[in-house]
């Protein structure tokens, strides 16, 4: 009995020590100087939001292009919350440049009652309203989060004057987040139900569009057919580039589709697969969130990201996050319009397409919906 008591005291001391070592900070402090927190265990109070391609911790407006931190669970967690789709860029096996992956300390997640509540709340979909609500969750969650903070000085990919990619860094979708929190524990969980009232009322009494099983058709074939339908429109040339980026069935283009979880921290080392240009673009789609034609919208969204990153308008530069996201949503919406979709809503209740809008209303309302979603829901600023 005495031995068990001593062991219990030692275990308690170890846990208490781990939490005592956590640095109390804020989202804005991390966003302002992420590298100063790299490798540290931090404690942050913030709001966790799940969007279509977002799994983030945000707080007040910080005044930066990205006012948030990417959130990941440790590998093997098998959690339910997380983005519907994520694009990750990494050096391929045949990358000829120099790249050294950082070494990270292991994180063990405390799967407490608080964590289970947290994960469950963030995985509940908003199912009201007609049409498609792409990646829409019912709640965002205020909580105190403890975890390992990973950071880079500059996120994203780096290019030389010729446009060749020379360096990789960053986390989450598009590698565009300079800071990532790998979750160790969560407490003080308080849900906040997101307000979809306006979008739901706008589509009230209408019939939704087809959202059947993706097994009924090949999503890449369906995307190619949509590109042909868009050929006569301003988006036609871009749609063809998106389809070409994925390639034909069996073709090796350096763009890989993975159907799986998007919420776990990935190895930052080079990929095992080769790529024609030494860079691998891995599109991970969570099929639990992308039923039927939602998968097609996701293919167009992520395909536009690949095109913008692989063949930028200015070879020596990478467009800012707002521009990359705005372009991707424009193509996702266009793919829905040509498919005959009546409504499309984004997480947080921002409607970006209603077939009943007049031609004069469409551009302004789509722009307002996309901009509102990026600025307010996912804290991506112009």
What is the fold's blueprint, element by element?
Elements lengths: L1 H19 L2 E3 L1 H6 L8 E10 L4 E4 L9 E5 L12 E7 L21 H9 L10 E2 L5 E13 L4 E4 L5 E5 L9 E15 L3 H6 L16 H11 L6 H11 L8 E5 L19 E7 L7 H18 L10 H18 L4 E4 L3 E5 L4 H19 L5
Parallel strand pairs: 1-2, 4-10, 6-13, 11-12
Antiparallel strand pairs: 2-3, 2-7, 3-4, 5-12, 7-10, 8-9, 13-14
Give your account of this protein's structure.
The chain has one domain. The protein has 9 helices and 14 strands. It starts with a helix and ends in a 5-residue tail after the last helix. With 382 residues, it is of the alpha/beta class. The strands form 4 sheets. The protein has a 5-stranded mixed barrel. Strands 5-12-11 form a 3-stranded mixed β-sheet, covered by helices on one side. A 3-stranded mixed β-sheet has the order 6-13-14. The protein is globular and about 60 Å long. The longest helix has 19 residues.
């Amino acid at each position: 009995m005495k031995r068990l008591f001593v062991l219990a005291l030692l275990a308690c001391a170890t846990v208490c020590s781990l939490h005592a070592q956590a640095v109390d900070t804020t989202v804005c402090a991390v966003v302002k100087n992420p590298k100063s927190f790299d490798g540290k265990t931090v404690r942050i109070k913030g709001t966790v939001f799940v969007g279509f391609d977002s799994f983030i911790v945000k707080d007040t407006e910080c005044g930066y292009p990205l006012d948030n931190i990417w959130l990941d669970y440790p590998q093997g967690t098998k959690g339910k919350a997380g983005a519907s789709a994520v694009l990750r860029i990494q050096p391929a096996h045949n990358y000829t440049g120099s790249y050294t992956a950082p070494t990270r300390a292991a994180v063990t997640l405390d799967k407490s009652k608080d964590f289970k509540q947290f994960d469950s709340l963030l995985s509940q979909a908003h199912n009201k309203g007609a049409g498609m609500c792409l990646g829409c969750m019912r709640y965002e969650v205020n909580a105190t989060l403890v975890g390992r903070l990973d950071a880079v000085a500059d996120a994203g990919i780096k290019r030389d004057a010729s446009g060749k990619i020379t360096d990789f860094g960053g986390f989450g979708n598009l590698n565009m987040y300079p800071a990532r929190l790998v979750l160790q524990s969560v407490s003080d969980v308080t849900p906040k139900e997101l307000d979809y009232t306006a979008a739901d009322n706008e589509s009230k009494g209408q019939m939704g569009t087809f959202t059947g099983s993706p097994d009924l058709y090949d999503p890449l074939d369906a995307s190619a057919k949509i590109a042909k339908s868009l050929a006569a429109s301003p988006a036609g040339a871009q749609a063809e580039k998106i389809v070409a980026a994925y390639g034909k069935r069996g073709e090796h283009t350096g763009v890989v589709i993975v159907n799986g979880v998007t919420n776990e921290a990935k190895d930052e080392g080079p990929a095992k697969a080769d790529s024609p240009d030494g860079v691998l673009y891995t599109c991970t789609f969570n099929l639990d969130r992308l039923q039927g034609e939602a998968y097609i919208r996701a293919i167009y969204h992520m395909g536009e990201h690949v095109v913008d990153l692989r063949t930028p308008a200015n070879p020596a530069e990478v467009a800012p996050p707002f521009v990359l996201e705005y372009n991707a949503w424009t193509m996702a919406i266009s793919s829905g319009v040509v498919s005959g979709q009546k409504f499309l809503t984004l997480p947080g209740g921002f409607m970006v397409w209603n077939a009943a809008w007049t031609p004069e209303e469409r551009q302004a309302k789509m722009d307002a919906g996309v901009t509102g979603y990026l600025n307010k829901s996912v804290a991506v600023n112009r």
